Amino acid sequence: MNIGAVAKQTGLNAKTIRYYESINLVDSPPRRENGYREYSEKNVQQLWFLRHARQFGFSIDECRDLLSLWANPNRKSVEVHSLVTEKVKHIEQHIQELRQMKKVLTGLLDECPGDDSPHCSIIARLASEMESPNG
Amino acid sequence: MNIGAVAKQTGLNAKTIRYYESINLVDSPPRRENGYREYSEKNVQQLWFLRHARQFGFSIDECRDLLSLWANPNRKSVEVHSLVTEKVKHIEQHIQELRQMKKVLTGLLDECPGDDSPHCSIIARLASEMESPNG
DNA sequence: TCTAAACCTTTCACTAACTATAAGGTCAAG
DNA sequence: CTTGACCTTATAGTTAGTGAAAGGTTTAGA
Question: Could you tell me the residue range of the domain that residue A15 belongs to?
C-alpha cells in the first residue's frame, strides 16, 4: 500500500506518517524501486495504534512506551494500567487548572460593564502591580 | 532599573523579558552607555500587565490585543469583555475535551486486570482497527 | 590592585508535534 | 504529450519560552 492509501485508511496525514517514521516511532516500511514506501499490514497496524493512542491524549513519548508494551508478549498488564492511571491523574490536574482560570475570568467578566465606555475592571486588574492576580 | 531587578519585581524570568522585547510585545527600554537596558516605570508596568495576562491563560497574541486595548483611551469595554468571553468559551471547550478523554481512559482502566498477566484490554483497544476509539 | 562573583550582552539551538513550502521525480488517463 | 495526482526530500515555521556558549561590566573583598 502507498502512503496515501494508508493515510486515508487510518485517518492520519501522510506527512504525519512520515514524521512518525523520521523520529523512529514506527518501523520504516521497505521501498519499491521508484522510492515509494510500501506499507505492510504490520506497518499499518502500528499506525492505527498510534492514531488511537494520540486520540486518547497520549504524548509521542507515552506512545513509544505503549507501542513497546504492545510488542512485548511478556508485558504485565499492571504496567499498562499504571501508565494510564498516571495519564488520568495528569488530565485531572489539567482540568483543575483550567477550571480555576475559568473561575477567575468569569469573575472579571461580571465586573466589566461591556459597553461603549473605556472603563474596564479587567484591564485595571491586569495593569495592577499586585504580587498575584489571585491575591 | 536593570533587567535583573525588573525580573525579581515582576516575577518574570529575565530571558522571558528579553524575549517579549524581541517579538515587539513590549516597548524596548533605552540603553545605558554600557549597553544595559534601563527600565522606566512605564516599561515595568507593561511587564506587570503581561505577567498577569499570561497567568490568566491568555496567549501572546491575545496579550498583544489586551495591551493595545489598555493603551487606547478610546477603547470600549465591550471589546475587552468579548475577548475575555471568547477565552472562557475556549477554556470550556478544552475542559470538555479533557473530560471526555478522562472518561474513556477510566473506562478502559476498569477493564484491565492490572496484574502480572500480559492480557490487557487497553492495549487491545489501541491496536484495534476500528474507525474511532469512541465508536 | 587583583580577582572572583554576579551581573549584563548576543546568538544559536532546543523543546512538541506536527504543518507548510519548495523543488523535484513518477505514474495513469486522455 | 501533457495534465494532474501521486510520491520524494529538505527546510522552515508554529508556541512560548529555556539552555548554553562566549563574552563584556560592575562590584565586593583580600
Answer: 1-59
